[in-house]
Amino acid sequence: MTPKVLLLVNFSEEYGRGLLNGIAKYSRLFGPFNFCRIPIVSGNKKELKNAISWAKTWGANGIIAQIENDQVFEKLLSLNIPIIAQDTNERFIGIPNITGLYKETGQMAASYFIEKGFKNFGFYGFDNIVWSRERCEGFCEKAAEFNFNVHIYQHQKEETPPLWSYKESQLADWLKALPKPIAIMTCDDNQGQHVTEACKAIGINVPEQVSVLGVDNDLSICNLSDPPLSSISLNTEKAGFETAQLLSKMMTNKEGIYNDIHVEHLQIITRRSTDFLAVNDKEISKALHFIYYNYKERIAVDDVVNATALSRRVLEKRFQLVLKRSILDEINTLRIKQVKQLLIETDLSITEISDVCGYTDIKNLSRYFSRHEGVNPLEFRKLRQSK
Q1: In what residue span(s) does the HTH araC/xylS-type domain sit (predicted)?
Q2: Helices marked H in the chain — which ranges?
Q3: CATH number among 3.40.50.300, 3.40.50.2300, 3.30.70.660, 3.60.160.10, domain 4-99+236-264
């Protein structure tokens, strides 16, 4: 008989959609499962009552659930069928959780900012949610290894967040008071967009004064942010596959002891919100500012020099001393990052990408790209598509 699996999860965001893709993949390969999806939004009691009633009537064999609180947890347990919970607020005892290596994710973010030369750090998130709290702990622990302190703004997550004016909010007051330049990790992409919008409303430049990094790599949120939000991508599809695999075992052997599923962090996707280096040299800062805002145009080294008060020879020397690379290297590094993103995320031709990213022709693009990546642009695109 085909196992019946009830999905009590809100799949409206990237994290949930990734889990769903992984669950569906397992079902195709090793199932099939018969799925019924009932989104539970903010622990709505009526929805929950209907879901539990439906689970009994339908004869569900297992549940993957986004559990908001202990009351929901107890009601689902009363069904006496295998359950795997997404740790929406806290991890649950007695059943496997879909959770994460949250401290390690925070440490990854801090290392990223430290390598960029930042000495001021901030964290913005929630203190009543495990994934936010532990990301903050990891971020602070890594910063402390280098004798840096972290300015923390944590608040309570509410079921229905109030609308507020960024200009008059406590978040805005906190951002104004922070030392600059500062690197801020936010607990997720939603909070990252809150920070970039608050900065925009009160006249703080992102990323020159405040660099912002989120988590989840939810493209709809990251690209909606102005400037686009950098984010840590998570391997949610793999976690979804492992969740379905574990539930299959649980439905076969209800008496076993089963471990949590850990969603792994993959890499930091750099977009404009962190595409900046923290340097004390004002003239280099001017040069970097000019490069970051104009690298998609066909600028040359002399254009960068003209944006500063220094001669080309002196500016080149300072670049090598402070950044360990040349002005041209900096321009091409940013261009190559943009090329890679367009190769992965779009179907633009190499000619179109060359023009968008400021190269004079395809030969120039291919030469710099091959030197940087070890393969030409077409080979890079084919390799990424095959993964």
Answers
A1: 285-383
A2: 14-30, 45-58, 70-77, 102-115, 130-145, 170-177, 189-202, 219-224, 236-252, 282-294, 301-306, 312-323, 327-345, 350-356, 362-373, 377-385
A3: 3.40.50.2300
Quick check: helix, strand or coil at residue 69?
coil
**Closest C-alpha among 220, 198, 193, 212 to residue 271:** 212
User: Residue 46 and residue 88: Cα distance in Å, rounded?
Assistant: 19
CATH of 282-385, picked from 1.10.10.60, 1.10.287.1080, 3.30.420.40, 1.20.1070.10, is: 1.10.10.60
Q: Which two tokens stand for residue 20?
A: 């769903």
User: Is 166 buried (19+), middle (13-18) or exposed (0-12) by CB count in 10 A?
Assistant: middle
pLDDT higher than 70, residue 41: no
Residue 290 three-state SS:
helix
Measure the CA–CA gap between 295 and 353, rounded to whole angstroms.
13
Determine whether 191 is exposed, middle or buried from the number of CB atoms within 10 Å of its CB (0-12, 13-18, 19+). buried
Q: How is the chain split into domains, by residue range? A: 4-99+236-264, 102-234+268-274, 282-385
Total residues found in the chain within this entry: 387
pLDDT of residue 250: 95
Spell out the residues 6+ positions from residue 104 whose beta carbon is closer than 8 angstroms to its own: 138, 265
Bond into 207 cis (ω within 30): yes
How would residue 46 be classed by pLDDT, with cut points 50, 70 and 90? low
User: 152: burial class by Cβ within 10 Å (0-12, 13-18, 19+)?
Assistant: middle
Partners of 269 in beta bridges: 231
Q: Do domains 4-99+236-264 and 282-385 have the same CATH topology?
A: no
Is CATH 3.40.50.2300 correct for 102-234+268-274?
A: yes
Contact 69, 49 (CB under 8 A): no
CA quadruple 317, 321, 322, 326: dihedral sign: positive
Among the listed residues 4, 26, 28, the one whose alpha carbon sits nearest the alpha carbon of residue 238: 26
pLDDT of residue 76: 84
pLDDT at 217: 95
* Overall average pLDDT of the 95-119 stretch: 94
